[in-house]
Write a structure and sequence with these properties.
Blueprint: E1 2-5, E2 20-25, E3 35-36, E4 44-49, E5 59-66, E6 73-78, E7 85-87, E8 89-92, E9 101-104, E10 107-110, E11 115-121, E12 131-138, E13 163-166, H1 170-173, E14 187-192, E15 197-198, E16 202-203, E17 207-212, E18 223-227, H2 230-233, E19 239-245, E20 254-257, E21 261-262, E22 268-272, H3 279-282, E23 290-297, E24 307-308
Antiparallel strand pairs: 1-2, 2-3, 4-5, 5-9, 5-10, 6-7, 6-11, 8-9, 11-12, 12-14, 13-18, 14-17, 15-24, 16-23, 17-23, 18-22, 19-20, 19-23, 21-22
C-alpha cells in the first residue's frame, strides 16, 4: 500500500509532523498486520525503451534506478505476462558514489510497454529494515495504429492519464502520410512516488519520467500537458511545470520551473518541449534520453530550501 500518512498513529504523532508518502506491507492471511516499508529516500525509476524498439512489438527496455544505494531486488511485471521478470542490475558510476545509479541489462521480447516495477531492499524476515517501492510505466496508447493517420504521430502518456505529450506532424495533417514516418520512436512514461521537492514548492502531481529510444524531431511542436485537480485550481497563479536537474560534480540535484501555459478555467497546464527544457529527449549524441517533470506550486521568488515529498 502506498499513500500519505504518518510514521505513527495520529494520536501518537507528538511532533505534529505533516503527512508524507509512506509504504505499508502485510502478509496475506486471516488477519492483516501492516508493517512500514517506506524507502529512505524513495528511489527515482526510469523505464527506458531501447533503440531497437519501434511502435511494433516485440519491445526491449532497460530500468534505471537512482540513487544506487541501497541495492534493490528488482522485478518487472509486464502488462500481459502472468509472471514477473527478475531484473539484473549493474552499477553505473559517474565518478563518485552519490552520482552513481543502477541500470539493468536489456529486458527483451516484451509484448507490451505497460507494467509495473517492484523494488525491494532488505528482507521480510527483518521488517524494521525492509524497504519497498513501486513505479508504473506506460506508452500511453499507439497513434501509429490509428487510421486514417492523425497529426499526432508519436504516443506518450502516463498510465493514469495525468501527463501526455502531443506532437503535430503537418504532413499527416495534409494527408501526406507516405512522406513521413515516426514509427521508430517510442516514448515511455514512468510514474514515481515520494520524490522530494524543495519545501517552498508545493507538489501537485507525481514525478513523471519521460524516456525516448531515439532523439525526438524538433519540427513536431512537442508539447507537454499535465492535468491538475480542482483544489489546485485555486492557486493556479503559482502553478508551474517543473523539471528535475540531475546532480553533477558541481551542482546539487534541483527542481526548476519551466515556462508554463495555463488558463485559469481549464484543468491542465502545457509547456512546449525542446532543447532548452528537455535537452536529453532531443539529443542525437546520447543513449540516456530521460527527462523528469512534476507540477508544483512555486512562490513568486522561486526560492527553495529543504525538501518535501
Amino acid at each position: 500500500m502506498i499513500g500519505n500518512g504518518y510514521p505513527r498513529a495520529p494520536g501518537d504523532n507528538a511532533s505534529n509532523a505533516a503527512a508524507a508518502p509512506i509504504v505499508l506491507w502485510a502478509r496475506l492471511g486471516a488477519e492483516l498486520a501492516w508493517n512500514t516499508a517506506t524507502p529512505k529516500p524513495f528511489p527515482l525509476v526510469d523505464v527506458c525503451p531501447e533503440p531497437t524498439s519501434t511502435t511494433q512489438r516485440p519491445y526491449e527496455i532497460t530500468v534505471r534506478i537512482e540513487p544506487a544505494s541501497p541495492y534493490w531486488q528488482t522485478y518487472v511485471f509486464p502488462f500481459d505476462e502472468a509472471q514477473a521478470r527478475t531484473v539484473e542490475l549493474e552499477r553505473e558510476s559517474s565518478g563518485t558514489p552519490e552520482l552513481s545509479r543502477l541500470i539493468s541489462r536489456p529486458i527483451r521480447n516484451l509484448n507490451a510497454l505497460d507494467g509495473h516495477v517492484l523494488l525491494i531492499a532488505g528482507s521480510s524476515d527483518d521488517p524494521q529494515n525492509l524497504q519497498i517501492a513501486i513505479a508504473t510505466y506506460s506508452i500511453g496508447g499507439s497513434p501509429s495504429s490509428a487510421y486514417p493517420p492523425l497529426p499526432n504521430p508519436i504516443s506518450a502518456g502516463s498510465s493514469e492519464g495525468n501527463i501526455m505529450v502531443f506532437f503535430y506532424d503537418h504532413l499527416l495533417a495534409e494527408g501526406k502520410a507516405a512522406e513521413t514516418d515516426q514509427s521508430d520512436k517510442v516514448v515511455v512514461t514512468t510514474l514515481n512516488h515520494g520524490i522530494q521537492v524543495p519545501n517552498t514548492f508545493g507538489p501537485r502531481s507525481y514525478t513523471f519520467s519521460l524516456a525516448a529510444n531515439r532523439a525526438l524531431p524538433d519540427n513536431l511542436s512537442s508539447t507537454l500537458v499535465m492535468f491538475y485537480d480542482k483544489a489546485t485550481a485555486r492557486d493556479s497563479d503559482e502553478l508551474f511545470i517543473c523539471r528535475y536537474h540531475e546532480k553533477t560534480q558541481t551542482d546539487p540535484a534541483q527542481w526548476k520551473k519551466v515556462p508554463t501555459y495555463l488558463v485559469a478555467t481549464s484543468s491542465f497546464t502545457a509547456a512546449p518541449l525542446g532543447t532548452e527544457n528537455a535537452p536529453s529527449l532531443f539529443a542525437k549524441d546520447t543513449l540516456a534520453r530521460v527527462e523528469r517533470f512534476r507540477l508544483c506550486l512555486v512562490p513568486p521568488d522561486g526560492s527553495a530550501t529543504s525538501p518535501q515529498s
